[in-house]
Amino acid sequence: MDVPRILDAISSPADLKVLDNEELAILAREIRQEIVATTSVTGGHVASSLGAVDIIVALESLLDMPRDRVVFDVGHQAYAHKLLTGRRSKRCAPTAAFPASPSHRRAPTTCTRRVMRPTRSPSPRASQRRGS
Questions:
Q1: CB contact burial 85-96 (16+ within 10 A = b; e otherwise)
Q2: Which residues contact 89 (CB under 8 A, 6 or more apart)?
Q3: For 62-80, how does the pLDDT look when each residue is reduced to its tens digit (9 = 90+)?
Q4: CB proximity list for 13: less than 8 A, separation 6 or greater
Q5: pLDDT at 103 over 50
Q6: What single string gives the DSSP state of each residue in 85-125?
Q7: Cis bond leading into 66, ω under 30°?
Q8: What is the dihedral of CA 114, 116, 53, 58, to 10 degrees?
Q9: pTM of the predicted structure, to 2 decimals
Q10: How far is Cα 108 from Cα 34, in angstroms, rounded to an integer?
Q11: Over pLDDT 70: what percentage of the chain?
């Protein structure tokens, strides 16, 4: 008989508020298992995903999400966040945003990710160097 997972009952960070420290540790283990299970099928990066699980569980259990904002250094680190914010059903694998290598083709997925790059206006020094 399968034991129900805590992860399966989580649909938003608010659900973490009722868990005690032992249950949060179990949840973190379940998230790591989910990441390993997903990437064993799809391939891709797991180190930063696994390394960020505990801090993401801690942040989301303490902060008022989504009012409080968290900025991730790379998309790989955000996979646990996606699992805890109700986006698990989309089957967004860590590889959906970042393939393992340029030759690795992106697997079909329903996930979309828009990368917004800040625009920079040329600095006054740059235009002086060009002779403008």
A1: beebeeebbbbb
A2: none
A3: 998 888 888 887 777 888 9
A4: 60, 61, 63, 65, 66, 84, 85
A5: no
A6: TT-GGGT--HHHHS-SSTTSPPPP-S----PPPPP-PPPHH
A7: yes
A8: -120
A9: 0.66
A10: 19
A11: 65
pLDDT band at 2 (very low <50, low <70, confident <90, very high): confident
Closest CA to 50 of 28, 20, 65: 28
User: DSSP labels for 33-69?
Assistant: HHHHHHHHHH----HHHHHHHHHHHHHHHHS-TTTS-
Q: Are 87 and 31 in contact (CB under 8 A)?
A: no
How far apart CA 31 and CA 115 sit, in angstroms, is: 25
With a cut of 60, say whether residue 83 has pLDDT above it: yes
Contacts of residue 128, defined as CB under 8 A and 6 or more positions apart, other chains included, come to none
Q: What percent of the chain has pLDDT over 90?
A: 35
